[in-house]
Specification:
With 613 residues, the protein is of the alpha+beta class. It folds into six domains: 100 residues, 3-Layer(aba) Sandwich (Rossmann fold), CATH 3.40.50.20; 155 residues, D-amino Acid Aminotransferase, Chain A, domain 1 (2-Layer Sandwich); 70 residues, Dna Ligase, domain 1; 112 residues, ATP-grasp fold, B domain (D-amino Acid Aminotransferase, Chain A, domain 1, 2-Layer Sandwich); 72 residues, no CATH class; 68 residues, OB fold (Dihydrolipoamide Acetyltransferase, E2P), CATH 2.40.50. It is built from 17 helices and 35 strands. Strands 14-13-10-11-12-15-22-20 form an eight-stranded antiparallel β-sheet, sandwiched between helices. A five-stranded parallel β-sheet has the order 3-2-1-4-5. Helix 4 packs antiparallel against helix 5. The longest helix has 17 residues. The chain starts with a strand and ends with a strand.
Length: 613
């Protein structure tokens, strides 16, 4: 058995791996960048090594530094987690060449499944059904446009080396193809160093079903049943569950058997996921489910599989990497109950899901109600350098409805401030009629997302309770139980003036501020006079940078006429592209952005003036 382990990752997955390793008596070594010097995974590991500046390309993505850290600390093995170098075959081989144990699949398996086009050809040869599309080498834009037309719109452009929803664009019409292709290729090159794409037929009622597989070095491969990851926003998973709603035993058997064939075709060792796309227009049917890709690593959503099977997948990874066989045979694995996982992000759904950064002055999650996997703590910093996911909230129930209700309750009991979170959005998604019915497809948020992203507001009772908690005792002296005096007073609620009902006569100044927490959201309530003139808004025509980032494209020049909604520039931050658009028809009066420039939060990038009549 491995005695010491270096985790080549950060955040919640690093903490997750450390937890299991500790239970197994394995010494752990963390690595960290400048931004993560005080991170939770650094605190929890037995030892930690600094590997460079904050940007991932200068720290977590430099394999030589990670291998050197393992050798320096005497670690026997390296676990890559997910993301970063987890599916980098060259890094996996370098780890082995350094005499270290790689906790993951063989480099040859990663290579075979790493490029989506080659993987789909391999799967077709292995008898695994694949989605119709173009997977050729010709990357000429005009040729790709012709292929898309032959496949028939809508189509999906996907980076061959992609993952996590990056380097992926849905295109509904031929007129939009070239622009979508260019954006997809830019994002793919920035994220994966490879701008090649493939094109698939876009399934109109798609469900994302995936199967957890596990192999060992003794020739054994098993599956641990399926997960449903259909609730997605821009191809990124939002809520996952296991098992899949509406999955009958016959379809499950065929699907899982196909997944095992896929894993065996690449001589797979360790934890992996075979992802399928299902046409759910007539329910889940084996003849309408196709292979999409294989993730040759542990998945973000692995906890739901652990919850229904009772298996610790990280423990299995460490045992198999140590040369042991898979602990359980296929007939010893079964489904028990239902599990759901929500990805809690530091982002603001009301502002187009822009990532939110800053200090977590308040960070409370109800771990006593279920499982919470996180990589942050109250007082920690959410930086702009990495993925904005700050926690995974996982609920288990005897059936699907019990799991859904518990997950919603857990999110409602969460409190995060002043960093924004998507908690209210997740609660709304869990309560959507289609989700309750188990008939979600991947387009649900695209269709009904506006209702899920409405700005949450506290109830009048919550505001009154908070305001009264701010009132000094001298204000409460006139309370009468049978007929209390009622008055209202002005307060500032997150930069907006509100009138709040108060009880009792009152004369003194209220306390400076109070946080109002309700249904997974948090607001700051401040007396109006104490608020002063804070929160003044800038002109509607001033386009400010919503976060620190890099300008990757500028589409206008000073003097250009623009229309409302027209793209002005594209900003790259937290590994994603964000388009900034014109708020109204007008003229570009000021431009302070150039492609390649780094900008700070709230920097004035563009000024639009209304066109003269």
């Amino acid at each position: 058995m491995i005695n010491s382990l270096l985790i080549a990752n950060r955040g919640e997955i690093a903490c997750r791996i450390i937890r299991t390793a500790r239970e197994m008596g394995i010494r752990t070594v963390a690595v960290y960048s400048d931004a993560d010097a005080k991170a939770l995974h650094v605190r929890e590991a037995d030892e930690a090594v600094h590997i460079g500046p904050s940007p991932a390309r200068e720290s977590y993505l430099i394999g030589e530094k990670i291998i050197a850290a393992a050798q320096e600390t005497g670690a026997e093995a390296i676990h890559p987690g997910y993301g970063f170098l987890s599916e980098n075959a060259e890094f996996a081989q370098a780890v082995a060449d350094a005499g270290l144990v790689w906790v993951g699949p063989k480099p040859s398996s990663i290579t075979a499944m790493g490029l989506k086009d080659a993987a789909k050809k391999l799967m077709a040869d292995a008898g695994v059904p694949v989605t119709p599309g173009y997977m050729g080498e010709n990357q000429d834009p005009a040729y790709l446009a012709e292929q898309a037309a032959q496949i028939g719109y809508p189509v999906l452009i996907k980076a061959v080396a992609g993952g996590g929803g990056k380097g992926m664009r849905k295109v509904d019409a031929a007129a939009d193809f070239i622009d979508a292709l260019a954006s997809c290729q830019r994002e793919a090159a920035a994220s994966f160093g490879n701008d090649h794409v493939l094109i698939e037929k876009y399934i109109l009622t798609p469900r994302h079903i995936e199967v957890q597989v596990f192999g060992d070095s003794h020739g054994n491969v098993v599956h641990l049943f399926e997960r449903d990851c259909s609730l997605q926003r821009r191809h990124q998973k939002v809520i996952e569950e296991a098992p899949a709603p509406g999955m009958d035993e016959a379809t499950r058997a065929e699907l899982c058997a196909a997944a095992v064939r896929a894993a065996k075709a690449v001589d797979y060792v360790g934890a992996g996921t075979i992802e399928f796309i299902a046409d759910a227009s007539e329910g889940l049917r084996a003849d309408r489910i196709w292979f999409m890709e294989m993730n040759t690593r542990l998945q973000v959503e692995h906890p739901v599989t652990e919850e229904i099977t009772g298996v610790d997948l990280v423990e299995w990874q460490l045992r198999v990497a140590s040369g042991e066989p898979i602990p359980l045979a296929q007939d010893e694995l079964s489904i028990n109950g239902w599990a759901m996982e929500a990805r809690l992000y530091a982002e603001d759904p009301v502002k187009g899901f822009l990532p939110s950064i800053g200090t977590l002055e308040l960070f409370q999650l109800p771990e006593h109600m279920g499982r919470v996997d996180t990589g942050v703590y109250e007082g920690a910093e959410v930086s702009p350098f990495y993925d904005p996911m700050i926690a995974k909230v996982i609920a288990w129930g005897e059936d699907r409805e019990e799991a859904r209700e518990l997950l919603s309750e857990m999110l409602e009991d969460s409190a995060i401030w002043p960093v924004k979170s998507n908690s209210a959005f997740l609660i709304n998604a869990l309560g959507h009629s289609d989700f309750v019915a188990g008939t979600v497809d991947t387009g649900l948020i695209g269709r009904d997302g506006d209702a899920m992203t409405e700005e949450p507001v506290p109830t009048a009772q919550a505001l009154t309770n908070a305001a009264m908690a701010m009132v000094p005792r001298s204000m409460q002296s006139g309370f009468r139980l049978n007929a209390p005096d009622v008055r209202s007073a002005p307060f500032m609620l997150d930069r907006k003036r509100v009138e709040v009902a108060l009880h009792g006569p009152g004369a003194d100044e209220p306390a400076p501020a109070m946080l109002v927490a309700e249904s997974g959201s948090v607001w700051q309530l401040t007396p109006w006079r104490a608020a002063g003139s804070t929160g003044g808004a800038v002109s509607d025509g001033a386009i400010l940078s919503p976060m620190p980032g890099k300008v990757i494209a500028v589409d206008v020049a000073v003097g250009d006429k623009v229309t409302k909604g027209q793209k002005l520039l594209t900003l790259e931050a937290m590994k994603m592209e964000h388009s900034l658009t014109a708020p109204f028809d007008g003229v570009v009066a000021e431009l302070n952005a150039t492609a390649g420039a780094q900008v700070q939060v709230e920097a004035l990038l563009v000024k639009i003036e209304a066109a003269a009549d």
